[in-house]
From TrEMBL:
This is YdbS-like PH domain-containing protein. It comes from the Bacteria. Residues 80-157 form the YdbS-like PH domain. Keywords: Membrane, Transmembrane, Transmembrane helix.
């Protein structure tokens, strides 16, 4: 019964791009590699000075490896939790694994639609679509939307917002 709270009124969720998980995995791996390199530099510089405590110099590296493994485990699960649905009068966005969120934005309340895509996201072919309303609490962001779908959503939501009396 608790699952009903996060079901789509339209009945079908549109998933986001699997490449979002890849991008997050790559960023996590870069951070993990940085920590491993920090450990290596510390060990090369300080191993003789700390004698029996040299193993402590590898703690950042171990943390980096753990971070990398966790991100590659977490990112696909998080990506699968995201979705959006287009209803007759509302746009619905969901996301989150542990702390789930469902945002329903009436088309008539939308003020503008923002599409963003950084260098890694562009290289992997996706962006983030953000719906803005007069209330900052109801802004809804959808990460990992394929670029062609992001363009379609931007145009469609803008038209629907204007058609439903947007511009509060």
């Amino acid at each position: 019964m608790r699952e009903d709270l996060f079901t789509s009124p339209a009945g079908v969720w549109t998933p986001i791009s699997p490449r979002l998980a890849t991008a997050r995995g790559l960023v996590g791996s870069a951070c993990g590699l940085f920590l491993v390199l920090v450990s290596l530099v510390l060990w090369l510089q300080l191993a003789d000075l700390v004698d029996g405590w040299a193993w402590l110099l590898w703690l950042p590296g171990a943390l980096g490896l753990a971070l990398t493994a966790w991100v590659w485990w977490w990112a696909p699960r998080n990506r699968r939790s995201w979705g959006y649905a287009e209803d007759e009068d509302d746009f619905v966005v969901r996301g989150g694994i542990m702390f789930r969120r469902l945002v329903v934005v009436p088309y008539g309340r939308m003020q503008f639609v923002d599409v963003q895509s950084g260098p890694l996201a562009r290289a992997l072919g996706f962006g983030t679509v953000t719906l803005h309303t007069a209330s900052t609490a109801t802004a809804a962001a959808i990460p990992g939307v394929p670029l062609d779908e992001a363009t379609r959503l931007r145009d469609r939501l803008t038209d629907l917002g204007e058609g439903h009396g947007a511009g509060v």
